[in-house]
Design a protein that fits this description.
Shape of chain A: globular
Number of strands of chain A: 18
CATH class of chain A: Alpha Beta
Number of domains of chain A: 1
CATH topology of chain A: Chorismate synthase, AroC fold
Largest sheet of chain A: 5 strands, antiparallel
Oligomer: homotetramer
Distance between the termini of chain A: 46 Å
CATH architecture of chain A: 4-Layer Sandwich
């Protein structure tokens, strides 16, 4: 595994679904930042399962315990570690899980990579439960960014074929509404929930997309060629289970356009350089332009479905039918929204810290 | 800048479009690999401009000079460095370029980040010319992979609204044809070239997509959570200028499907575990599954167009009109194909080297 | 802070002396290695304080709790995290500690770096207690190395002016004896203990050195220029508190010699290439030679002494006298021995994993 | 190989002694710094061989050619690459060199690591010639530091048994004198030169030590546990060929002292916190204290000597006698002085850039 992300801020995720605990260490947090623990708990609740009809009914009490890195809830410069105890720990016989890989899960690939020694209980380190520590780190970064006037907003952009209204690229705003199912168009939201209810009733699942905006960003963040903002965001977002696609600004749609349609002209706005449109998604040459940063991430349908599926017995080298037991999210997208926000917040905070050294000399000579 | 990519294999790109030279250093190449210099030159020619009607007529002689890392064209374990001299070096007055940023280019963002000290001539370090050193490194990796039975294939999947036939996900094959304009469907290719000719005649440009497949990969490559195959590929692919979107397997289309439609069942095929379909794009949980790895990258239209565009004078803090001189690729996509192959080859080779340590203990105890 | 070490194996140390816990995450451990928990506990006891007259009488129960990374005590490929709860957690008023920095401690430097937000209780993240998680990681690596036939030996080479017999450089052996005070010459050991008893009675402390040997190493480990064996070992060893010097092979003494005296000639020994002497300390050009790896680390006297010392009040900007309360190790060196072994084991294991990719091509073609 | 050093500033060394060129890329240099090319050339001359009786008479014209990273000699934010052409390029038959390893050289270890594919001509990537690109990077960093009021001073502290006067630890000053043979005590310098002349006449060599001081450093640099100032400096200094020992402040001598002797009390000096003595060498807990940073590095005798030495024929698996031809430095220490300065400057500059993010929040709230 390689579960450490970041450069100035290094976020290290650990844990398996059924191990004693999961958790995160953040190394590189500047000293002196006070965490609002209630706001963090509220953010983490948005990711927690079992709280509404469109997610798994499995209950988790995902309150983090902070082991170190804080003095009176304020960062002290030392690595910060927080853990969440697993209540669902290992028990019973997992031989069957190791033998018949679940389609679209990591089971088979992990079996080869780890030689059969991987933890199969509950998905091990591949479990979506590992997004909880990601959200702890991201929740802290969201507060850091907010203090700097930077906000991260995300909504469910689509579920199956049902699409929400996209953000206004120049002025993205998230309306008040159900924070567990954030959409811009409530009618679209209702239709999405109907789709989720339907696939659940059919022991099936459905995919979707999340659109995210970051506002209040200064121009000048990002370190091309390989640590530009797209690179940084992509590297962390593809760490969210089920994420299979990503586009910035006009993205795939922009690839169908002409330059005269896709280029965003510059203009002056209250003495500041802005673009009238924002098909570049706030990133030019890998560097923030000062316009809202915009991207959209695609999530595949939850792989765990109740229907019979074709698989193989690895021990017998023979085909077999698999029926996955238990209850699972019929659609991961609503709970992916805070994960996307968390990932974006981590990437942006890291880029912000890295940018502190860009101007060391010329700034002082001015 | 942060122009170093990779973990076991570290690829460091340097140079500006009009500096004396551009180049690349590869640190971590295993010793004892013999480079086929002719094959490398042939690969580099595919990226070079000026050789056909749909690219810029500017001529470049992009033959690399190897400064070190080789003994008799065989890697010696020391860092390998190759450079390409720029014939178009700095001259004249670039004050105008620094004052009026080109829309959709890095100019404005770089001006803020580097405090006005960035090299503006020819786009500096942001120039697409910097894909030449990427292709040197990638071309070497392609040969390394080929020796291991791994092949990287890519074609123009779309130009504007015109789409090529996609790869067969289970058995991707690239037909013989024009290597400078690789498509699966020659008729689609003709239509694409017509679109490119049209936008060129209108002093405009057009975007498109590239589809890439990697075949012959063993199962077990990739290091989740943050160095899984999607993370690794994304980090390098977004380093190619104009890349604004990326999807693996069924990607965005898969997000519209149900689990029962998108999951790929396992089956036995000649004693090997395979999937009947390949909507997962050869990656499960960030790890290769042994099926072909498949992804699609979106490229925005070339930002440089001959038409008048709206911009600002940074010195005067006033709006102005900009008309970009010179000749530019009306569509970057054909030349992006070898760049995508190169980037994929680098990411896969790095993952392959990193995987050499996965099984150290259990393998020996068997 | 930057408390992550390693490349293939990444060891992340976290915790403060009086925070709820301290701990370590190891990312990159190959799957399938079974940890001998009793042997690990025995190793950790060697570092634990309070068990004999020459260390601090403060008792600590340093048994690690493994949170993840294991299935039935066998590595599963996921990051391994172990923590140790602190029983001495924060309480009382630390304002005085923050105001008057202790000489030779990190207090003043940390005050400047962290702007007064650092955790001062018990030394915070700078406490020697943080060597406990280092020893957890190192203890696991020692077992991994032992399985590969590699052993790490260390002894107290000096305390104050009293010197132990050095290792035989060609065949280092550690005699049976008191594992808490390992020496080659028991009489020297007695004299060292007498010195420690004396300085303790005088409310003072004393420094010393540790000599370490690694035997059974294959030739070919280490990655020059900047990740050669000396670089790797130095980077981790200077992470042990109070370490202020390091020399490999003949080291400083070798700098007084002539080439004809210091060079080790090669010879054949049972069909293997060896050196008759070992002033190079088993490392040539940063790479292991197959001879025993040898180094010596210098530790300063424990900074905490009972005597009055000159310091300043940071708030009053005035000089003042400081008298440190509590009981401290009069000599850190005996407990530094297992820390040095642990650090060496981590560095060597990392180098071993990194070397797995050196020969990928030529080995297969043979 | 792993020839990249640094975190915010990444210095990548490439080249072999007899390859077409050697060079360096610096990624992460802040934009806007103007390099004084004459001062840099003067610094590089101090490392160049062939200019006086105590170094090798081999002439090298080590003027760097800057390929990129500069606009009008001012850093532009893009990676900076400089190369030096080798005039002594590969020719002739190196089979003998590959067969009989030179004692105390990397030959044998490299043969095993690189499977016989390593470049043996002139020592390949292990050649001391590779310190020339290190000095290019270091020479630039020295200028950067000087602009910030930080100076790096080094002198020959010993040659064989002859010792120079050490720096005043509280106020290190380097007297004017021969810049190619910097010493504090001219009489000691004369004695050292006599020793070098003697060993040369006897076809032998001799080792020595270099003492280095960095003055003007702010308190607060360095990132413990593993990127503290000792860790950072050690990692780069052990990259200088022949460096086998390193100590900070009182170092090995301090390990013989008592705490009451070695601790440096704090005092107020013109309103600033200082220590009256400086046995801590300007580093406390891995972080700079604001006092001069002091260290001493040990260099082994030049391995290449004219006398007959015992070696083996790898092909014949038999012992043989080796007589090294050519002329070599009888003592590497005088030319190691600028290399130590360069390495220290790189490490300090990197730490300085990394520290720019320490105080992001609390600084602004003051």
């Amino acid at each position: 595994m390689s579960s450490i992300y970041g450069e100035a801020l290094r976020v290290s995720i650990f844990g398996q679904s059924h191990a004693p605990a999961i958790g995160v260490t953040i190394d590189g947090l500047p000293a002196g930042f006070s965490i609002d623990m209630e706001a963090l708990a509220a953010f983490l609740r948005r990711r927690a399962p079992g709280r509404n009809p469109y997610s798994t009914p499995r209950k988790e009490d995902d309150l983090p315990e902070f082991l170190c890195g804080l003095v009176d809830n304020t960062t002290c410069g030392a690595p910060l570690t927080a853990i969440i105890r697993n209540t669902n720990t290992r028990s019973g016989d997992y031989a069957a899980l190791r033998d018949v890989p679940r389609p679209a899960h990591a089971d088979y690939a992990a079996q080869i990579k780890y030689g059969g020694f991987q933890d199969v209980a509950g998905g091990g380190h591949f479990s979506a439960r590992l997004t909880a520590p990601l959200c702890i780190a991201g929740g802290i970064c969201l507060q850091i960014l907010e203090q700097q006037g930077i906000r991260v907003l995300a909504h469910i952009a689509s579920v199956g074929e049902v699409e929400d209204t996209p953000f206004d690229p120049v002025n993205p705003v998230l309306p008040a509404g159900n924070p567990d199912f954030p959409v811009l168009d409530e009618a679209a939201g209702q239709a999405m929930q109907a789709v989720i209810a339907l696939v659940r009733s059919e022991a099936d699942s459905v995919g979707g997309t999340v659109e995210c905006a970051v506002t209040g960003l200064p121009a000048g963040l990002g370190d091309p060629i390989f640590d530009g903002m797209e690179n940084r965001l992509a590297r962390i977002l593809f760490g969210i289970p089920a994420c299979k696609g990503l586009e910035f600004g006009s993205g795939f749609a922009g690839s169908r356009l002409r330059g005269s349609q896709n280029n965003d002209g510059f203009r002056m706005e209250n003495g500041q350089v802005k673009t009238a449109t924002n098909r570049h998604g706030g990133i030019l040459g890998g560097i923030t332009s000062g316009m809202p940063l915009l991207f959209r991430a695609a999530f595949k349908p939850t792989p765990s479905i109740g229907r019979a599926q074709q698989s193989v017995s690895l021990s017998q080298r023979a085909e077999t039918e698999l029926r996955i037991q238990g209850r699972h999210d019929p659609c991961i997208v609503p709970r992916a929204v805070p994960c996307v926000e968390a990932a974006a917040a981590i990437a942006v905070t890291d880029a912000l810290l890295c940018a502190k050294k860009d101007h060391i000399f010329w700034e002082e000579s001015r």
